[in-house]
Amino acid sequence: MVDRAHKPSALSPSTTGPQPTVHSDGKKVTASLPSGDSVEVMLYGATVISWKSNGKENLWLSSNAHMDGSKAIRGGVPVVFPNFGPAPKNHATSALPQHGFARISNWEYLGTTSSESGDQGKGSDDSIRLDFGLTPNNLSDDMRKAWSYDFSLQYSVTLSKDGLQTMLNVRNQGDKPFDFQTLFHTYFTVPDISKVKVTGLSGVRYIDKILNATEHDSKGNDLRIEGTVDRVYKSFPQDTTSILVDDKPRLDVIRDNMQDTVIWNPWKEGAEAIADFAPKDGYKNMICVEAGAVNGWITLEAQDGFEAGQALKSHL
Ligand SMILES: O=P(O)(O)OC[C@H]1O[C@H](O)[C@H](O)[C@@H](O)[C@@H]1O
């Protein structure tokens, strides 16, 4: 799957209608649709750093984010694998850093597929998929030693009008099972956190990481952010979590084969303590809604595969 030959960095122009454009400079892949939607993905971490709908940004990116591959990128959509949070002691992931190695490894760009559904006029492509791959060959020696399983990841980022889908395909290429967690650590930008409501949490139990990881029942359907929030909502009955601004839908996160969602805002104190979080009052303009499989571990048998993801919809 990830051995697929590299594809050309730009699609050839066509006479059939407006076409998506794709550009890769070896560090970043950028794709745009005729509708004014665009996405930028760094090969470092396969981190989506920008997703625009109609030219308007949906994601938050720290102005102090490290873009040189020296540290996980603070903002956008970092990919968490194979452990979420600090790795537990006495576990196969114990020697790995917080949130694993996927967000701090250099991925390969595998190529592009565009498709037409006819919505934007005859002959025009209205979605474009960018594929990225990661295998042990792409890991640093330290990471390979710390987690020595034979795996492959294919990460597909599909841009469509008002939508972005991210799908992760995990394969165990080896002869012994491994356990993993995964999550899309999506930082959304919002105009004013005091006007934000998160819905779709009704009836979901959560682990509150700032209350000694104690478990609670969500009260009511809506969550307002009025201080530090760091919660793992687990085993959702419903697929969609939404961000509303002034009671109007702004963004939807639709899980596909992922049961959990982390809601995180570091607030003032947290932002102060995170060196690459800038500006320091940026917590007023962001919220992380992180779809994942992080409550417990997924065991992948030898030669088995797992696929899961999220579809993001923008109402901007
Ligand atoms: O600072 P990072 O390693 O990027 O982690 C940022 C945050 O990620 C998740 O949302 C966790 O639930 C938080 O506990 C953590 O602080």
TrEMBL record:
Family assignment from sequence similarity: Belongs to the glucose-6-phosphate 1-epimerase family.
Protein purpose: Catalyzes the interconversion between the alpha and beta anomers from at least three hexose 6-phosphate sugars (Glc6P, Gal6P, and Man6P).
Catalytic activity as recorded in UniProt: alpha-D-glucose 6-phosphate = beta-D-glucose 6-phosphate
EC number, UniProt record: 5.1.3.15
Keyword Chaperone on entry: no
Residue segments, region Disordered: 1-33
Coiled-coil spans in chain: none
Keywords (A to Z) from UniProt: Isomerase
Name of the protein described by the UniProt record: Glucose-6-phosphate 1-epimerase
Isomerase recorded as keyword: yes
Biased composition (Polar residues): 11-22
